[in-house]
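ok here's Taste receptor type 2:
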Amino acid sequence: SQNEFNVTSYDKMSILVITLQAFAGMWINGFIVSVLCIAWVKKKSVNSNEKILLFLGCCRFLYLCIAWVYSFLQAIYSSCYQVLQIPRILTAIQSFFNFSNIWVSACLCVFYCIKIANFRHVFFTYLKAKIDRIVPWLLLVSVLLSLVVGTLVYDVAQEVQFGNFNFTSLGNLWKLSIRVDEHFFPIFFTAGLGFAIAFMAVFFSAFLLLFSLWRHKLKMQTNSMKNHSADVHIKAIKYILYFFFLYTINFTCLILALVYATMEANPLMFLVSVVQYAFPGVHSLILIFSNPKLEKTLLRALLCARCKACKK
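and the structure:
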């Protein structure tokens, strides 16, 4: 019918912004995945850092792809959300990849902390020696936790159908609200706890890593070591601060998304969505420039593209 395809100017702006962010993020993460896959085929092996980056790039690429499809259908063909199973499936898959993105990025920060930081504690020394064996288990736990969240989201979306409730008074509407809140509580509690644990892991990893690098930098200055080494450590500290700043903003938006999940669309939720779509692309771009191999490949690709454009 005609009403199914009526799109407001607000929806058009939302689709445009989300489309630009989603495709930019997919290109950036697709670049990371392709470079690492090519290197994997050539070397026939992949280290722990590349495993996490490869898994993170795949999760983010698929998350942005599914999220864009979900937003596009929601804006263009909103009536299907009252009839078909597709929205529930898309919501569950999107939640799975989003939770994977959060947890794997936290695992990456923990990995960098254990690999780079230098502490003499016995437990930390043990982790540093065993981290390469621990990484696959961390990724497996991230997948399992994300599956739990995705399953809960699907169950909640299946059970809570506003169109199936009949209410004719404010009293029945209040009962409906309580019933909906009861359905949403398990997923809110699980997702909120998962986000909080991931954020705390990032916070403590960043703090320990910054402390270790700062102490090492002071030691180098005391021993009059080369400025080049000090510059490398300063650069590492900057990237860690960038990542922590982005992760903090994203964590705040995730909590706001949980708080306002049952409410109607509003400008605040649009801003939250913009930040959530931007995080996978912006953080992956920082990861590219913090990795010498990825940075050189990107600059070489951009130089080749520029030369071809000039020849035309």
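+1. Residues 170-222 form the longest helix (53 residues).
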